[in-house]
Design brief:
The protein is of the alpha/beta class and about 325 residues long. The chain has two domains: about 120 residues, NAD(P)-binding Rossmann-like Domain (Rossmann fold), CATH 3.40.50.720; about 200 residues, Rossmann fold. The chain is about 40% helix and about 15% strand. It has 14 helices and twelve strands. The chain starts with a strand and ends in a 9-residue tail after the last helix.
Length: about 325
């Protein structure tokens, strides 16, 4: 019987995982994330399968503690918290849960856009402090304006559908053009610079690659319209935080709705909270900038929760268990490398 260790287990996951594993696997459910601070016990060292969320940090020194590891079954799409190179060298498969939150994330991106344009959170916070100033809460309508969608994969395509439905004109930037998006939602594909210069709103839905790291930098912000609003539910590292903060604080662009930040793990990860000395100078700088960014009146920041709905969680759990069952039967599905 295979031994499976589940980490980052939330209360709402417990019943599902017990039902899925009882009588089939030897398993353990652990609330804590798996990282270099976690003390792996003798009875855990021989586990063949690990399942975790993005709050775990599985580096080489962590992986070396598991002598019989065959599979890391992620309960997420992202896998940049796993040492993939080590897994490749040691024949450890890493399987993710794709397409669980296409609509979920797109809806959240739209919610951030509406929040920033109509100053919802800003006004609510003011009211809690007995501040009512109509001049400071004047918003803008989004109907008839132009949204630039960077990355038109599964989530970006859903964002295009929603944007079309509420009367936005759509510019799209992606390496591959989808004819159905042109026909159904009147997406006009264009080059990156044209999108930047002609969009009132920009929503990011690209995966992070070596080629698009800091694709939004000072030069890009300088090209944007003064009324531009950026929404990012993709990856924080797509944006140069220093240049972003400067442009927002100096009102060169109008605002931002962010569910992801560069080096966001330093704000919540227990490893850094226990020992700040674990941060690199670069991570420490980003942490200071992130804290300043969150204090700007024209910025809304949420803690990477765009995926977080009941429906998406159920899809994540079902796919993760499906991945594990298939692997035990000798089938590889959703491997990330």
């Amino acid at each position: 019987m295979k031994k499976i260790l589940f980490f980052d287990v939330a209360e709402y996951e417990v019943e599902f995982l017990k039902r899925a594993c009882e009588g089939k696997f030897e398993y353990q459910l652990t609330v804590e994330p798996l990282n270099s601070l976690f003390k792996v016990s003798k009875e855990q060292e021989d586990a063949q399968v690990i399942s975790c969320f993005t709050t775990s940090r599985i580096s080489q020194d962590v992986l070396e503690k598991f002598k019989n590891l065959e599979l890391i079954a992620l309960r997420s799409v992202g896998f940049n918290h796993i040492d993939i190179d080590y897994c490749k060298k040691n024949n450890i498969f890493v399987e993710n849960t794709p397409n669980y939150g296409n609509m979920t994330v797109a809806e959240f991106a739209l919610a951030l856009l509406l929040d920033v344009t109509r100053k919802v959170t800003y006004s609510a916070n003011n009211l809690k402090n007995s501040i009512v100033d109509a001049k400071c809460t004047i918003g803008i309508e989004i109907f008839g304006k132009t949204i630039g969608i960077v990355g038109l994969g599964a989530i970006g395509s859903e964002m295009a559908r929603l944007a079309h439905g509420i009367g936005l004109k759509i510019l799209g930037y992606d390496l591959v053009e989808k004819e159905d998006l042109k026909e159904k939602y009147h997406v006009q594909y264009t080059d990156f610079e044209t999108l930047i210069k002609n969009s009132d709103f920009i929503s990011l839905h690209s995966p992070l690659t070596r080629d698009n790291f800091h694709m939004f930098n000072k030069d890009v912000f300088d090209m944007m319209r003064p009324n531009s609003i950026i929404v990012n539910t993709a990856r924080g590292e797509l944006i140069d935080t220093q240049a972003f903060y400067n442009s927002l604080s100096e009102k060169k662009i109008a605002g931002a709705g962010l569910d992801v930040l560069e080096s966001e793990d330093t704000l919540t990860d227990v490893e850094y909270l226990v020992d700040v000395g674990r941060m690199s100078p670069q991570a420490l700088q980003k942490t200071v900038l992130n804290n300043r960014l969150m204090k700007l009146d024209n910025v809304i920041v949420t803690p990477h929760i765009a995926y977080d709905t009941n429906e998406a969680i159920n899809r994540i759990l079902n796919t993760a268990i499906s991945n594990i069952n298939a692997f035990i039967e000798g089938k590889i599905q959703n491997n990330v490398y």
